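ugh ok fine here u go
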Amino acid sequence: MNLPQITRRRLLAAAVALGAIALTSSQSFAADGQIRWLVGYPPGGSTDAIARLLAAPISKKLEQTIIVDNRPGAGSSIAAAALAKSKPDGLTVMSVDNGTLVINPVAYRTLQYDPDKDFRPVGVYAEVNFLLAVGKDQPYKTVEEFLSQAKTASNPIAYASPGIGTPLHLAMERMAREAGVKLEHVAYRGMAPALNDALAGVVPSIVIDYTTAREMIRSGDLRPLAIFSASRLSALPDVPTFGEKALPGFSAVAWQALVVPHDTPDEAVTRLSDALTIALQDPAVKSRYEQLGLGMPASDPESFEKRWHDDKAVWQPLIRDLGIMLGE
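structure:
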């Protein structure tokens, strides 16, 4: 499906806004050689761009060159399998998310890595905030109207997502269950076609991340109804959370984090974690995060490990209950 030119420009702007930064340095911290930062998604996407944004101050702190190595495919599983086989010397790291560590081990029939056995946490470095939104011509003005209609409509309201088993799909399904409503999931192969159809009115609603949606919200083409996170976004102060309006205590966000091979030495993990913490304090990073509505959580290995395992308890039973099975 071809995207309208205006949509193509806006989607490109959402990715480019994060920026791609060239990395240079002179000295390594672990033996010699460069750090290879694996990214399981294509260049230009948000995961890739956030990695490059953070890699610059991390490289400066460690006085070591960082090379971003994109290995897209199978929901980041290709890159994860490569990390699992990498030498645990502190010279190979990877961007991971809920999908890599929590969803894939349950949703994929076969997987060439085991997160619990193959990886060691370094730190969470970003929270990606989700929205329930509708096109500008849809009748729903508030989340209360949307949920009320969903409870009484003879046919479920349809919503678009970037794919089956993605964090956005699972967040919407969990919200619907807790709200006691039935919705019709329309799965697309990526956010671009899902957003295109939501803007065109082909599907009435969409679950979308703020980073991608922000330009369409600013233009008025997309109307945000509610935020999935626990707190309102500073960029959208008038948009309520689901917890405020319908589901007390409810929250669902995606996160991105850094891991290394499981047997990486403590010293290397500590130095990487410390460098990540300093990178998150960089004024340019903080400013860009605020612009894009990204959360900046604690980055130490211990809090990351707890969050990882807490999320398994929440999301893996839902995946099994929904019967999601990916791959051949």
